[in-house]
Amino acid sequence: MLTLKNIRFSAQENGEKVILDNISYEFSTGKNYVLTGANGCGKSTLAKIIMGIYPCASGQILFNGRDISGLNVTERANLGIGFAFQQPVRFKGITARMLLEQASKKKLTTAAACDYLSAVGLCARDYLDRELNSTLSGGELKRIELACVLARESPLNIFDEPEAGIDIWSFNSLVDIFARLKDKNRTNIIISHQEKLFKSADEMLLIQSGKIVLTGTPSEVMPRLQNFGKCDRLRGENGQD
């Protein structure tokens, strides 16, 4: 599905600062993965490099055997890579129905559009014609964004801290949504600090100082987090440390 080979990324902050240091990993089809680690360790940077939002300084990215290292974000999206931002974008004048149709790249019946919204716990007919503006809460926007991921049916989806900005009730639903998103033909990569989301993963990756320092199943990785400095503090369900 997705293979990373020696991915390196650096930023210029009073000299060169290495953000990602030769990261290599292979993600398989049909699994949920969680990437975790302290703030600033490189999780979101790695996600944006996979999506093509950031260029990598060196290394190679293979998607279904094809080298996509030189492709831009639009080209990668067209190949079947989806990305859900930490803070979903609000669109004045764009309704949930319009966004779902844009994601699916086809005209949707009302029933089909409602099915996508219902799958993420929204009362579908109340949201179909709602604009994606300031009248929607962070949790509502997150759910609509997840519905668009379902509508797009991408084989690879990346979620950058999906729990950010949502209340505890929406978070509890979020855990169920990721369980439903798992599919034998789909790979999901979730960046998170949340212990409940860890448990929804097939495999966890702990990133520290730009390197993958620990991998395994949640039952293997979670007991060892306390041995990795700042990573011993998991965020509470309300998003607070």
Structure report:
- The chain has 241 residues and is α/β, with parallel strands linked by helices.
- The protein has nine helices and twelve strands.
- The protein has helices at 43-51, 73-79, 96-104, 110-119, 124-127, 138-152, 168-181, 195-198, 218-221, and strands spanning 2-12, 16-27, 32-36, 58-63, 66-67, 81-84, 91-95, 131-132, 156-160, 187-191, 203-208, 211-216.
- The protein has a six-stranded mixed sheet with strand order 6-9-10-3-11-12, with helices on both faces. A four-stranded antiparallel sheet has the order 2-1-4-5, with helices on one face. Strands 7-8 form a two-stranded antiparallel sheet.
- Strand 9, helix 7 and strand 10 form a beta-alpha-beta unit.
- Helix 4 (110-119) packs across helix 6 (138-152).
- The longest helix is centred in the middle third of the chain and has 15 residues, at 138-152.
